[in-house]
Amino acid sequence: MAVLKVMGITKSFDGQKIIENITLELNEGELVSLLGISGGGKTTLFNVIAGLSQPDEGKVYLDGADITGRPGQVSYMLQKDLLLPYRTIEDNVALPLLIKGMKKREARQKVSGYFDQFGLHCTQKKYPSQLSGGMKQRAALLRTYLFSERVALLDEPFSALDMLTKSRIHDWYLQIMEQIHLSTLFVTHDIDEAILLSDRICLLTGQPGRITKEIRIEEPRPRSKDFPLSERFLEYKQKVLYHLEAGT
To answer: How far is 210 from 71, CA to CA, in rounded Å?
Structure first.
């Protein structure tokens, strides 16, 4: 069942169309990647879905309700963790609850129950500068989740991590998604990452950007450790590359 529906979204800036007639659905528990070249309109689309930007045409629906132009309905995490350096991890994570009007003590109590689940044991009183890159991303993802517990928009959240840390975070994030019943729309420029994580890959190509191809990854999640070395993986990668080049 679709938890998020994006219907016919078109958006222009200064008279130039950036994206045109974008339609996609995100089903409950799914991870769908948006893949394309830089400047193709992926972040513009995310801003519309998140309610930060009003589309010229089209609508966005969450659980059947029209959320077009209404911020705060879905979670949105950018490439950088954007943790506030002068706040403890506990208070960084609690920020969405404080913004919603919850008292600080109550917010701290609520977030404390998530720290072990998100792999953040004993980090509550630490500051961002005291955490590794991977741990900061976990804290940022927890904060993102607390904005909205249904749908997460992730805009290249793992691109700054080294290869080994990224692999561990991938495995962890898929486990967390399943545990908390989260659905994810994921922007990446990394074809391997998209194949490893996604149920479906939507290719956003051309100018203005349009979804020109959807590729379903018919492999169970999480993918096996040998999958990136398999012939099947290479077939998916060749298919993605072919359609990206055809769509530009």
So the answer is: 23
The CA–CA distances, whole Å, from 226 to 78, 131, 220, 230 equal 30, 31, 13, 7
Give the relative orientation of helices 133-147 and 163-180 as an angle to the nearest 10 degrees.
Answer: 30
Q: Are 19 and 10 in contact (CB under 8 A)?
A: yes
pLDDT tens figures, 138-172: 888 888 888 777 898 998 877 767 777 778 888 88
pTM above 0.90, yes or no: no
